[in-house]
Request: fold
Amino acid sequence: MIRGEQIPEGLGRFALLGIALLYLFGLVGLPLVVVLVQAFADGIGAYLHALSDPIALSAIRLTLLTAAITVPLNLAFGVAAAWAIAKFEFRGKNALITLIDLPFAVSPVIAGMSYVLLFGSRGWFGPWLRAHDIHVIFAVPGIVLATTFVTFPFVARELIPLMQTQGNEEEETALSLGASGWQTFRLVTLPNIRWGLLYGVLLCNARAMGEFGAVSVVSGHIRGLTNTLPLHIEILDSEYNLVGAFACASILALLALVTLAAKSLLELRHPELRSGIARHA
Amino acid sequence: MNEIALELPALPGPQRAAPRYRAREFRVLPGFGLTMGCTLLYVSLIVLIPLSAVFLLSARLGPAQFWHVVSASRVLSALRLSFGAALLAALVNAVFGFVIAWALTRARFPGRRLVDAMIDLPFALPTAVAGIALAALYAPTGWIGRWLSPLGIKVAYTPLGIVVALAFVSLPFIVRTVQPVLADLDREIEGAAQSLGASKLQTFLWVVLPSIWPTLLTGVALGFSRAVGEYGSVIFIAGNIPRVSEIAPLLIMIKLQQFDYAQATAIAVVMLLASFALMSGINGLQLWAQRRQRRR
Reply:
């Protein structure tokens, strides 16, 4: 590079391209390969045996349940927030957007901790919850809350810029032609934002199923009860059950691959969706 | 002449002000109250109240005690490690992330779309999966570790392993921030520089870098901010030895498990304040980068 003008046109380019690809494959590609190789290290029988373990199955069930609650919740909120923020002018809009972004900037461990401070046995509402026999921390509600916190900005963050660029004219026309507010949203807004919505839901779901730090704080790691799939991986790893750990990891890796494939397909058809990705990559 | 002189000054004022007034005074679209109410309620319940609990609880400590907790040697070394490793990882990615963004926007090669999709893998791959995979790769017997250990380089279960994990999680932030700006860069200016006799390095240093570096800095700050709080991928590869390879989020976790809420919140407050400062810094950087881009 230093004597760039003396190196033939292609060579410096070629070297740079090589460095880029080598770094990317070494840092990002190899981990994916090693997961799949290790999962099948003892053959497909051991792999299937590890996955049919009842504790692993209950971890998968809990992970699916958590995503099934948090994703719709954040979807509904994301649409509401995007409607308020993109369609109207009001004071403090930037502050509200910053608040919505906040979970991306906060360590997941701190997110989980904040719920322990509220609902833990020594937390603010701890005595009251105990008196009413409600379990939040070290139980499923805590896992759902912590996951909701970390996945909270995805849909809203995707929809706000999309709806802002689309403007209000189509909705105003629909209203002036006599459509009700709900009809306007369902028949005009929703078709316009559906791909952005799907994009946000994809990212939200991937994070919800894979969250580790926040859930780890509130879960209590009770086997078969409060262990999500990522937490189960940690337990298997600490027991040196590598095939089990990597078998569970391979499921989550597959989820990541499916998410990426769907995301790339959406970006191919709708390039405008890409604009938001850098913010919460 | 007279007509133009009369009309011109009148134009800018009302034209700029009108749409804002209209939107604020009469809201044509329905549902503002409902959606805004839901949003505020949800934000308060999920984010605002839990996070204020952290600040309120740490306030119970009092300044002297707070300082006592935060300046304990184990806490200080955990904070130093978290911030130092995240910074190092972000800086390494500033170089390689830039080269990758360059390759994706400027070079044509087979499989480019696949490589482009791979950039987001650290973002889609759950941190626990990344953690065990990196630990397996860099362990002394692992695919990469076995080549490094004869050279005396230990990665897994050392602070270097933490840097590797944080480089993994922060890479997409830098590439994805730089990539669109690099793609939009006017290549004619680079061509002009080279036709005027500038070498490739000179073109890069004096033409490309000045227009890209606010964006690069934004990407590095985003990656750093993500890496500082990272927990899942790190704890599998770090070895977690107190004062050596114990990151701040792990120390918070340990204090919580000991029911030492006061100390846990004190460490959390330091990290939260740093995150907030970073966030406003990033917002400022983004504004600056956008303004520079618009000017060209």
